[in-house]
User: Which sequence fits this backbone?
């Protein structure tokens, strides 16, 4: 390209013109900047603010972390209490059900296997006092046991 | 090629006030020429150094401090442009006065009044081309000729590949060439 520029005056003129234009532009930009630059370094205050906020940030973070720990502990203990209360309630309900089952078993007139027989006897002895029938069955049961 | 941390580059960050004093003119110049708005350039220069100060621990010395600062400045320019696009009425109202003041800074080479006028016209033409370029082309042009960075440094600042930088630079120069071709 340089060789061509040396041998072609038109291109050389154009290249020179372009170079001058761009150089002038760059130089003017630098001069303009120098003239407008206040040169003020107001960074001191900003840096101090940044330093403070940098220093403050961990404090805020620690505060938030502590608050979160407190919230987690409180929520955890509330949940734990709720669970204990629920378990106790379930236990008392199951105790009650068990007691009812025991009561039912104990208060049976006859063992479960004998229930149909008792029912048949009851049906056959219509008119006979239930006390008598029961006492017959009772004596029958006793005889079987012996 | 693996990048090795350069202690000299990271050491420069230790005296931050000295770093500001050393690099402020270039950062302000790049912001001013990119935005053509003195107030915005002042504000963003402060912002640039504040960001650099906050991020100084993450700087690993893989590039020059000046390249790193220019990268921050360029991001600020892009953010600023994005915000201004939202406020388009503001764009037309301001900056033409400061832009016109630049034309007055035509290099004084002790030439005749006529030549000085021609130089002003040429400068105005180059500026108008620079304004009409895409953001990438303008950035590459400014970094190459005003900041005098080499292509590799421009690639680092802009995050573009070196080849892409070359293409943008060629298009910017070609636009200027076409614009001034008919001028005396």
Assistant:
């Amino acid at each position: 390209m340089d060789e061509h520029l040396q041998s072609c005056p038109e291109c050389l003129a154009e290249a020179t013109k372009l170079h001058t234009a761009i150089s002038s532009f760059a130089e003017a930009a630098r001069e303009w900047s120098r003239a407008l630059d206040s040169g003020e370094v107001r960074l001191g205050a900003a840096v101090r603010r940044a330093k403070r906020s940098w220093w403050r940030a961990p404090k805020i973070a620690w505060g938030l972390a502590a608050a979160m720990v407190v919230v987690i502990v409180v929520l955890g203990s509330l949940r734990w209490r709720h669970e204990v209360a629920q378990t106790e309630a379930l236990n008392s309900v199951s105790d009650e059900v068990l007691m009812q089952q025991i009561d039912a078993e104990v208060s049976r007139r006859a063992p479960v296997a004998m229930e149909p027989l008792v029912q048949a006897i009851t049906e056959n002895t219509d008119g006979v006092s239930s006390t008598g029938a029961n006492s017959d069955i009772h004596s029958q049961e006793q005889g079987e046991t012996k | 090629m693996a990048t090795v941390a350069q202690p000299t580059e990271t050491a420069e960050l230790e005296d931050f006030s000295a770093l500001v004093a050393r690099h402020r003119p270039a950062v302000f110049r790049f912001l001013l020429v990119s935005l053509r708005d003195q107030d915005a350039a002042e504000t963003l220069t402060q912002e640039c150094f504040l960001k650099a100060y906050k991020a100084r621990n993450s700087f690993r010395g893989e590039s020059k401090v000046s390249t790193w600062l220019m990268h921050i400045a360029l991001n600020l320019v892009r953010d600023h442009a994005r915000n201004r696009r939202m406020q388009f009425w503001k764009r037309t109202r301001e900056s033409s006065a400061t832009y016109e003041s630049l034309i007055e800074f035509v290099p004084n080479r002790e030439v005749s009044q006529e030549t000085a006028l021609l130089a002003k016209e040429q400068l105005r033409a180059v500026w108008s081309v620079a304004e009409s370029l895409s953001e990438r082309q303008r950035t590459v042009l400014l970094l190459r000729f005003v900041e005098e960075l080499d292509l590799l440094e421009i690639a680092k600042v802009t995050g573009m590949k070196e080849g892409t930088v070359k293409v943008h630079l060629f298009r910017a120069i070609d636009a200027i060439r076409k614009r001034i071709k008919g001028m005396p």
